[in-house]
Structures are given as C-alpha cells and as structure tokens.
Amino acid sequence: MKKARVIYNPHSGKEIMKRYLPDILNVLEEEGYEASAYQTTPEENSAQNEARRCGKAGFELIIAAGGDGTINEVVNGLAPLRRRPLLAIVPGGTTNDYARALKIPRNNPVKAIELIKKKQTIKMDIGKAGEKYFINIAAGGALTELTYDVSSELKTAFGYLAYLAKGAEILPRIKPVKMKVTYDSGVFEGNASMFFVALTNSVGGFEKIVPDATLDDGKFSLIIVKTANVFDILYLAALVSNGKHVHDKRVLYVKSSKVKVKLLEDEKMMINIDGEYGGDAPMTFINLKNHLEIFANIDEISDDAIVGDYEEEMYAEAKTNLLKEIEEIEKGAELN
C-alpha cells in the first residue's frame, strides 16, 4: 500500500486537529493509503524534521495539518529532497493564506482532506531565501513588524482584529528605508517603506494584494511601496480591496524569477518569511518553478492563476493507466 503521514500541530485552531484526526486518517485509508500521524512537539523544526524523514523513507503522501507555520515547516523538510512526495494541506490556523490560494476548505478538516478524492494537483512554485524555503511570501520593511508583534494567542483569539489594532499603533512611526532591489527586468534604488516577494494572491487574509498571481509560472510578484507617508499608506490600503494599488505611481509592481534586496545605509531590516523571522537583509530570493506537487481545488481556482494544463495531464495519466490494465488483461488471457 501507498504510505501517507499526517504531520499535525495539536495547538492550531483551538486544537481542532486533535478532534478530527481519526476522520482524516479514515479518509486516507479509504483512498488506499496506509496512514499514520505525527504530533509536532515544542522542539525546534519538529514538523520539518519529520517531513524530511518521511520523504527519505519513501512515503508517497505527506499531509501538513495546521496553520501556515506548520505548512512552511513541512515544505522546508521536503523541498531539499531529490524525490519529493505529494503534499496535501489541512488548514487549521488563523489566516490560512496558502489554503485560501488553493481553494482548500478552511473551516472543516474533513472536507479539506476529502479534496484528495478529486485527484487534482498543481505543480507549485516555491521560493528559496538563503537556506530557507517559503510558500507564500517574503517581505521586509516597517509594516512587516505586524507579524512579529502580534502574539499567537492574540491571533487565535481575535484574528484580523489583532493585526488591525497593531497596524494602527505602528503606522505613525513608519519610516522609509533606502534600499536597492534588483529584479529580472531592472533595478529599484531609493526610499521605500516595504517590499513583498509573493507566490500567491493571498497575504494576511487579503486576497487582492497580488491580484494576478500565477501559482506555477516560475515568477514572483514583486511589490515595492515607495512611500512612508501615513496618508499615502492608508490610501493604498483602501485600494487593496479591489487590487488597484498595483497601478498606483507610489507602488512598483513587476514579475521576476529572482529578486535581490540590500540596504544602502547602515541600518537593519528583518526579513519576514511566511510570517516568521527569516534573517536580515541583504538577501536573495529565487523562484523554484513547479517544485512541489500539491493537492488543490483546481475547479475553484481561476484559469488565469494556473499556467499548466492539469486537466489534460489527468486525462493523459488516466489513458496510460487504462492501457496498462488492458495490457495486463491480455497477458493474463495469453497465459490461460
């Protein structure tokens, strides 16, 4: 039998994973997997180490069950491997940006794992920053302090409200940073309050920050906010709801397979990778095209967000499997 391992965070989403774990394992068994589970521990890189161990041991499917942090750890365990198993996601955190982008049910772990029954997968791009990998976003600048300053307890209790409250607190003290950002088609050099290097359309629960994100084209969406003026930032924030901020002159918005960021003055800028501290600038971000194959709800994802013709691939695979079955039947008939 094919082997599947559920790597779950017992504390995500008010401990929802503990309650639904037997049901998740049940669905996997129904789909022909020999399923087992691993509960993450407070030990550093617990999920990452287990994902890497399972990948090396030949597991065909890994399920990351938890918030974006758990998913990031599992991806960091799988990404360096030469043979990488399929990945499924059962969201259980506060924002669940990656699940939003892949249209995976976010409020019902059983519906999320049942998505594997549709057998729809995307060969997803992921990012590499130094020795770390990321699946959604890397960012730097004053506004990224929100992620560090809002505790996990507040995020769990108040969700977006916790971010909004912290945003209102730090907005008046935002200051520009002089940086040099090199990308495929050019260079930005000057003052900016922040930059984003994004892989999906969903950032912090907002699904229009990157309105035309493509999940498998080998390109990041690079956003640089070229102003630190409070009123400018509030105005741009208002435009985010419909994605029009990317056309504003105070924003640089381009696609790039590689991005290099460094500071031009003697300052420090922490880099946020998938919501966690990932080191300091200077840093280079590289897009690893089609690096991980992940179960997704392709029927619900916009055609513009996917380059590959996955429907055609599924038909081709089904045709190959059918021909193999016919060949086996014919061989059996000849022996009889």
Describe the protein in words.
There is one protein chain. The chain is an alpha+beta fold and 336 residues long. The chain contains ten helices and 16 strands. A hairpin with a 2-residue loop joins strand 14 and strand 15. The radius of gyration is 21 Å and the shape is elongated. About 3% of the residues have low confidence.
Quick summary:
With 336 residues, the protein is an alpha+beta fold.
> Distance between termini?
28 Å
| Main structural class | alpha+beta
| CA-based gyration radius | 21 Å
Determine the CATH topology of the largest domain: Rossmann fold
Uncertain runs: 156-164
Which CATH class of the largest domain applies here? Alpha Beta
Count of discrete structural domains? 2
CATH architecture of the largest domain: 3-Layer(aba) Sandwich
> What is the CATH homologous superfamily assignment of the largest domain?
Probable inorganic polyphosphate/atp-NAD kinase, domain 1
Let me know the largest β-sheet: 6 strands, antiparallel
Provide tags for this entry:
alpha+beta, Rossmann fold, Tumour Suppressor Smad4, 2 domains, six-stranded antiparallel sheet, 30% strand
